[in-house]
Design goal:
Number of helices: 10
Strand order of the largest sheet: 3-2-1-4-5-6-15
Helix content: 25-40%
Shape: globular
Largest sheet: 7 strands, parallel
Structural class: alpha/beta
Low-confidence stretches: none
Number of strands: 15
């Protein structure tokens, strides 16, 4: 009988907790440890911190990375959206000869924004004989992988438009804060300028789609504006008053020879009337795909990351993207 996949959870915030709970349901995975530098979590049981109904698990969260020496097959990494901030963390995981699946949005397709860092990670991973990938619901699936998959039914693709509308009132508190819910319009704009209010990943998705369809994109632009609440709206965590920001309206564009080849629009705000994801490909033939209700970000992100584990373990060494990998469902009862 083959041994189970030995996994470590790196980062035990809301996303990392959901990843740990989902891995726990896979018979082929053995969680052997977790890492989080938060003093309120270090030393505690992973199952208890993750809010698992079957806690305690008997797995202690470590404040340092010594657990990486335990020869995990894969590290599931969820600490930051910014690639420069996690380079050392990823490097330690690779040096431990562990494959990595990360939720870092800027790792999803780093070749345009961070070509030097991408090359460095690819070289390091190959030197240790392991692979890594950044993935999630967006970037990693809805606005890129799924777009390219739909394009398999086209003989020619001339342009792409993806619209994602998300009711943020059903999401976790950190995301509601991340989209600026209940800020004044002035504070919202200040935090956009400071880089605090932003959904990371639209430029990465545009770059992945452009490369996949062979578009020569010279410029990627991005605009972020507040969605202003017309009436009061209460979520589980906060209340948004009339005239205050309910969330973000973010549009990124891929420009080729002065024309828009790719448009990606994200409306993520509390009280959005109808969540949905729509992909429109113009070409031969025209193709339109709509997911009523949208793809639930928290649930789908955990699913995509954990479902990618068998694929990244089987991948050739180096830096991979969701474009490279044949992603599919990882059944709970699958054997190691």
């Amino acid at each position: 009988m083959r041994k189970k996949i030995r996994a470590i959870q790196y980062g035990v915030g809301p996303v990392g907790s959901s990843l740990a709970r989902l891995m726990r349901k896979k018979q082929a995975i053995e969680l052997i440890g977790a890492i989080d530098t938060d003093p309120a979590k270090a030393g505690r049981d992973l199952g208890e911190v993750a809010g698992a109904s079957d806690a305690p698990w008997g797995i202690e969260i470590s404040a340092d990375t010594d657990i990486l020496s335990e020869a995990a097959d894969v590290v599931v990494h969820s600490t930051s959206s910014h690639l420069p901030a996690v380079m050392d963390q990823l490097g330690e995981c690779l040096a431990a000869e562990s494959c990595v699946v990360s939720t870092c949005e800027e790792l999803a397709y780093p070749y345009r924004k961070y070509p030097d860092l991408a090359a460095r990670l690819d070289e390091e991973a190959k030197s240790w004989g392991v692979a890594l990938v950044g993935t999630g619901v967006n970037p990693g699936f809805v606005m890129d992988k799924l777009v390219l998959t739909l394009g398999a039914a086209a003989q020619r693709v001339d342009s792409v438009r993806v619209t994602r509308i998300v009711d943020a009132s059903r999401r976790r508190l950190p995301l509601q804060k991340k989209v600026g819910a209940d800020l004044s319009p002035e504070d919202f704009k200040q935090q956009v300028t400071a880089g605090i209010i932003k959904h990371h990943g639209l430029p990465e998705s545009i770059a992945m789609v452009a490369d996949g369809f062979g578009f020569a994109i010279e410029e990627i632009t991005e605009v972020i504006e507040p969605v202003i609440a017309r009436e009061a709206f209460r979520t589980e965590f906060l209340q948004v008053g009339p005239g205050r920001a309910a969330g973000v309206h973010q549009i990124a564009r891929g420009i080729s020879k002065g024309k828009e080849k790719i448009v990606m629009e994200l409306q993520m705000y509390v009280g959005a009337p109808e969540s949905n994801d729509t992909i429109e490909l113009r070409g031969e033939p025209n193709l339109v795909l709509t997911i009523p209700g949208g793809t639930h970000g928290d649930i789908a992100t955990a699913a995509l990351v954990v479902n990618a584990i068998p694929t990244i373990l089987a991948a050739p060494a180096g830096l991979k993207t969701s474009r490279d990998l044949p992603l599919c469902f990882f059944p709970p009862a699958a054997k190691p």
